[in-house]
Every structure is written in structure tokens, then in C-alpha cells.
Amino acid sequence: MLIKFYIKPRKGVLDPQGRAVSESLKSLGFNDVKDVKVGKYIEVYVENKDKDKAIEEAKEMAKKALVNDLIEDYEFEIVE
Amino acid sequence: MKFGVAVYPGSNCDYDTYYVIRDILKKDVSFVDYRESNIEKYDCIIVPGGFSFGDYLRPGAIASHTPLTNALKEFTEKGKFVIGICNGFQILTEAHLLPGALLPNNHGRFVCKHQYLKVESNNTPFTKKLKKGEVIKLPIAHHDGNYFVDQDTLKKMEENGQIILRYCDKDGNVTPDSNPNGSVSNIAGVSNDRFNVFGLMPHPERACESLLGLTDGLKLFLSIIEN
Hints:
heterodimer; A: Mth169, Chain: A; B: Rossmann fold
């Protein structure tokens, strides 16, 4: 089973990379760009085949290591 | 007072810190490997600067759950001292031994220069040899030094006197122009509410000998050895 984590800077937290990419896109003529967030994508492959257990495990992984909830938001999805 | 200097893969200010304690302060000091969890014999552990574990995931994130960092939690509960410098500060926030987090600098660049700092409190074990309001100068060198903390926690920290150092200009004015990285309230160094854990982005260990240009770092170390 695969857990896909999508991590991005929390709302209201400064994102210098996002700001730079936003400016760069505008300079290329993409004038409708309103905002850009640059985050991380992490794939975690687990042996486990029980989806509910994988969800619990994913939340623990995020809390204990993958995400700092003071500065980051995250979502995850499970792929069987 | 027996000092330990933590060594993680990627630490690079460990020997500078060790040198200051051994050769300048003339105190007992050993390196402590990140896999070590028996640290009872030490009175103060310094978590030095560098790029522990390559800054993978987030600066300090992987180092924050190694055996040594886990042992620091019990160590601080006993009232012993822990000081985190630069990456050490990042490790201590990731380990929740200090409030807040260090974000990338607001301008997106690495900053490396001498920086004026205002001593906000000298009523701490780390600053007792300094005067309240004194302006000192220390080197800074970081990419992720932008201190962030939520407003409620910040208010509590200010009331408790946990803000120890702020970035300022040469006259001690704490202004947006003197903020090198975008830190909330120009914060450069903070303590926990028990005042035995101290984290700071500047490098006092690089400012202890006139040969190197700056000597204000020594005042912080001389404060610590008084305890």
C-alpha cells in the first residue's frame, strides 16, 4: 500500500519559494497567477494491507515526523 | 560544570564550540554522539550549528528524534542546561524543547554577516554577565532563521521574559530594517519557561577571541559557567 503525503506551508505562514515562483510565472506572462505555494510530496510504501490501519499510521507519521503543524498543512491519500 | 557538545551527522560547528569550552573557558568538555542516550554525567549539553542530516525534511527534524535528543527531554526535566545554536536551535524547536519554529529567511537567501543584538533580559542563566538592553555583536549564518510562533504563545513568552535576544541596529533600535530574516518581533534567541533551555540563531562560539574580530560571544559562555 502507498501513502501519498502532500505538505505545504500553512495559511498565513510566509512562503518565500512560493512568492519567488509566483513572480517568475508572472514575468513569463502568466498574469492571472494569484498565489503560489511550494510544498513537499512524500511517498511512503507500507507492508500493511488494512486501509483503516494505514490511515491511522499515516496520521501518526505526519504528527511525529513528516509535518510540523505549527508551520505546515498536509493532506494524504492511500493508494491500494 | 561538565559540558557535552552534541555531534550529529552534518554538525559543523561542533569543534568550534568544543574549542571555546576547552581552550578559552578551560572547562571539562566531551563530544556526545547522537546515538548516545546516557548523558547523566553532563551538566550542560550544547547542540551546535551545522546541517544535521542534511536539513532533510525540515532543518532539525530528523535530529529531533535521535537517541541523544530524546534523552535531552529527561535531562532538561532534571533542571540541567541545554543550549541550541543555529541548527541546534532548529533541533530544539523540532523536539518541542523550545516553542516556535524556524522558517526559511523571508528574502529566500542565505544570510552571513555580523549582526547587532539587543539583550532583552539578563535575569537568565545564559545572560547574567550582560546588561539588560546591552547591544552585542555576533555572527549570523543561516538560511532558515526566520523565527515563527503564534501570537498567543508569543504574548506568554514576552510576559514570562522568555525572549532573550532581538535583532537590532547599532544603537539598539529593534526595527524592520535590522531584522535579517523576517523573524517575528525580531526574535534571535529564546528560552523555555523554566529557563534551562536556550536557543539562538547567532553564533557565540565564533565570537570569543579578538583574533576572530568579535568577543561578545564569550559573555554568554561566561554567564553559563557561573551556574
